[in-house]
Amino acid sequence: MEEPVFWADQLARDILEEQGEKDSYVFNSGMSVSGKMHIGNLRGELMIPSRVRHILEEGGKEVDFLGVYYTQDRFKSKQEQLEQFDDPEEAEKYEGWRLIDVPDPEGCHDNWVEHFNEENHPYLSDFGIDVETLTTTEFYTWGDTKELVRRFLDNRERVRNVLNEFRERNPYPEDWIPFDPLCTECNRIDSTEALEVDLEDWEVRYRCENCGAESWSDMEEGKLGWRLEWSALWHVLEVDFEPYGKDHATPGGSRDSCVALAKEFDLDYPAGFSFNWVYLKDGEDIREMTSSGDVGITAQEYLEFSAPEVLAFVYMSNRPMSEIYFSPRELPTHYRRFDRAERVYFGNEDMDDEKREMNLERVYELAVLDPPEEQPVRVEFDHAAFVAQTIPPGEWGKEGLEKLRDTGHVPEEMSERDRERVLERLERARNWARDYAPEDHLYEFNEEVPEEVVEGLSSEQLAAIRDLVRMLEENDYSSGGELEDDLFELARDSGVGVGEFFQASYLCLLSREDGPRLADFILTRGQEEVLNVLRTVG
To answer: How far is Cα 46 from Cα 53, in angstroms, rounded to an integer?
Structure first.
């Protein structure tokens, strides 16, 4: 029986089968620049293709990865877009403009596109994504593009017949010209109708429904209709593989109509796959990440509180058409899964199911792309968040690492790279705790035991706390394991039971019934500081 193939490896095989064996291939992804460039965009458009590219390159193939920004598309003037400007009402005048023409709402870049791309493109390499970008604004100035535009316009009846097969309810009329001119008067591209084209001077005569202008416009400033544009990009860029969102994958939808158009004109079309959306989850509030709707987390924002390989692991753990609900509050769970996969990959943890183990190892490989020779030193993310809130950042490199050694979270000796990894995780855990952590991961340390806590403890619990004070006074602990053994022995001998003993300890120290492992807490916070708090029980 043939071994199952990981889904990304199968995608690579499918490309070779559909496009044939070649020395080099071209991947392409189309990207919206209608607003916030969020991590949901990374999944189907960039992350998965970059991993499939990696697989092909491992097999000796050369792959060029292109990313097209649709800068000629219209500004939709959604409320969320308008609110990016200081004066949303004034910004309404940009409705229908090409995105490349809309000014930067904060005035720090040349235009809207550059402003929002600044939160995305400079950080792609952190995620193992190497993509060469271009804009559709550039695309329409190329000679090869003009040659195909001319061919489409010279044969627009054929174009109309193909596309009308997919537009039974609203077919294009006989005099339709499949080109969207830019109005030279009001600067809109969404309210014009092409009336005549001059392919010698590369101009188009148009009528604008918005301002009433009727004039000629440079065709380099306009664009093909969406389906023709997509087919043109495939042909001119010689694309072998391109992903597409599930909205384009419906039978008779955008993808099918573009393939039909390519076939009509004997143009090659790429292999591809459809992918589902990434949703932003905050408790019961679940919203689709969307650029124009300003919903999502940018790559820049994400890297402040989480490692890029963790997001890659989440994406590669799920098949492309599965929905992903990303909740920053649940980040420790993603870290635990990533850390476990790493242990499995390096043979330091076994799984009962061999197939699942192989699958997990492949996910890890594709998430990190270049696994280190030895398993990295990792501090559990939950504990890193606790340490980062307990010890000032300026002391992480000395006291922080000492406390982590005392509690057994890092070895006595580690490489400089492992030291960097630990400090990076502390930094991200601190930012996560500040911005996203649920209440049970936030720590406010008592300077003394609150009176209401003392009044709420039973006499047996109070006696057990006093025994704990004596134990800490009589012993200077440097090992989390030794302290934990003594804590459990004390709890068992106290007569209140292990659960009530630890509950009383957390109430005295944190004013809550649970917390991090008590031995870790005491050693990280400092034995003397903990004693000073517990002595106030009286």
So the answer is: 10
